[in-house]
Amino acid sequence: MRYRQLGNTGMRVSRLALGTMTWGNGTDVAEAAAQLSLFHQAGGTLVDTSPVHQHGHGETMLGSLLNDTVARDDLLIATTTGPRISRAALLDSLHGSLRRLGVDHIDLWQLHGWDSTVPLEETLDTLDTAVTSGKVRYIGVVNQRGWQLATMAALQSTAAGRIPLACVQTEYSLLQRLPEHELLPAARHHHVSLLPCSPLAGGVLTGKYRTETPTDSRAADPEMAPYITHHRTPRAGRIVHALATAADGLGTSPAAVALAWIRDRPGVGSPVLGARTTEQLKSCLDCEQVTLPPAIQAALDDVSALPQP
């Protein structure tokens, strides 16, 4: 696997990240261990989790696998804050994540959300304190709007003693290209990498839903069904058809083509893979063997294009 610098920082990460959103909710400990081992063997380093996932169970599962499955020092652990972003809430969230993960520091701590009732200086100062204390190495944000990211990135990069933002995480895929209108331009302007989550749109871009809904798929889960249904549109059908055509020509899978497309978008750091099974993860990792010809890139750009705002 190849590696990239994250933003305008010294943090060097694998250009694919392993997500833990399904861990504890469809992915048990044994399967999680197999995923982590496979990801590490493929050269992956960045593992993304959150206290929001299953009320912290994703972090706990990851912590239980460190050293026994993969050495802690071989991984870069990313997690998020909780939804409340006052100084007290942030510090409580940080200490809770450190405890559940069983580690003495977090490599990438990402601010989750925006709260206009909390002074921004208080929030950013707490992020900086976490870094200077040694409990966090780098900082980023999750699910911010373009103007919110630009405001924080400007403050962090211009004020003396501030820690620059490394990344912003948001949903981004061939089916969800809205970040290109506002968030991605802001990120690139401020030298902040974008970490796409749901890069396969919940599995829609794998082609598994072209003719039916598999009984063991996320669409069969009542909690996930509305998300999948939202993405099963005529536009999605055209994109999936284009992916399948490209995959046939390249001798790979639609998932690998979709991931190669998002991986190579300007400004992208590491797409976060959210596989439920080791076989699904293996299929995703196959994208590292794929380089899309310019003609296929252009065709995918065209079929997935959104109207200009």
TrEMBL record:
Q: Could you name the Gene Ontology cellular component terms for this entry? A: cytosol
Q: Where is the NADP-dependent oxidoreductase domain?
A: 15-302
Q: Name one Pfam family in it.
A: Aldo_ket_red
What is the name attached to this protein's record? Aldo/keto reductase
